[in-house]
Amino acid sequence: xFNKITQKRMFKIHSRCTLFFVFLxxxxxxxxxxxxxxxxxxxxxxDRSDGKGAVIRYHFSEAVDSFxxxxxxxxxVQMVLYGDIDTTGIQLxxxxxxxxQVILYKQDxxxxxxxxxxxxxxxxxxAYPDQNEKHLLVGLTETNYEELDAYSQQFLAKTWYEDFKIxxxxxxxxxPDSGTNPDxxxxxxxxxxxxxxxxxxxxxxxxxxxxxYKRSAKEKDVVLSIAKKLGSYIEENLPDVEVIYxxxxxxxxxxxxRGSIANRAEADLFVSIHADAFTKSSVRGAxxxxxxxxxxxxxFEVMKEENQxxxxxxxxxxxxxxxxxxxxxxxxxxxxxxxxxxxxxxxxLKNRAQRKSRGVRQKGLVVLYQSxxxxxxxxxxxxxxxxxxxxxxxxxxxxxxxxxxYRAIKQxxxxxxxxxxxxxxSAND
Length: 429
Ligand SMILES: [Zn+2]
Description:
Strand order of the largest sheet: 11-10-12-15-13-14
Number of domains: 2
Structural class: alpha/beta
CATH class of the largest domain: Alpha Beta
CATH architecture of the largest domain: 3-Layer(aba) Sandwich
Helix content: 25-40%
Radius of gyration: 29 Å
Bound molecules: zinc ion
Oligomer: single chain
């Protein structure tokens, strides 16, 4: 009797468990379908059959929650894709002449997308879902350049870069304590530490620099804004580095004086900031120069080949080969360091700010010749190219350029300080 009751109870408990288990499975399955991720497996591009444009296709497994498309520059289309989107193993389109690059940025609400279009085309973008499928299409329709330029001006570009606003904790000084009283520090040794930078905004005052696309911008204003942004990033995030400007206002400073300012300050690095110009508006890209003779002839050949003669307003007087040889003999260490930081800046501009790079070059520039420290000149882009003009005159573009240069400087400082601490340690042994 007792046993029977127990068995019955056991059965009841068991069946309740089963029911609960089934319910749990149902719940799990249901909730799983609620939170099902939308898989974006591929982004592909195809030319329109009439030859008047192209279509970019987003291969989604489900219709996307919602989306947005803007075109803040003639060659930049930006999209926001909302929803729980999984992009694991996504296939992106390769480099083409119409669509140069597609870059995705993970956001809290979904994804931000930058689509860089070819410079030789004037395409207006709009987006719409594919009627029969879950795919999303971006139509690129041929238009004329003036119309496109006017159209793109109504949009303010979005920034996806999660660390775009530089908000990192200031770096702790990693130089080992040599045991000396900080009040009686060794001034010779301290000179090796990277703690002073001169930022040189090109031109100024009566010298506007180049005037950009349709004479609608002034180089002196663009480069001063970038220089100040760069300086403020350094002051905020590298507090042990003193920033000295050759000019902070719209004033003219002689080329030779710019170098003298740096030399008097005994700075560790001289960074001159400019924007390029050329008679053909399609020419674009950023270049980084450092002073030297090494490949001057070769780079001149390259320039001739490209049929591009620089508007060298920076080179007030060309340095002779002799000048450069004397400089090279006296400053070989600086030249090596200049080359090093030049490549770091180029890498950041190319990979961080997504600028087309024209490379790192050696050149006999007076403004660099005068300084007795590692020195570079950054041509941030062509103001005569409409897309780059828009980028370089926008607060967004200027911030991106400045933060790219900042990152390179931070990396360079780290290297310099590490080699300094090594020297300091071995001097103590
Ligand atoms: Zn310039």
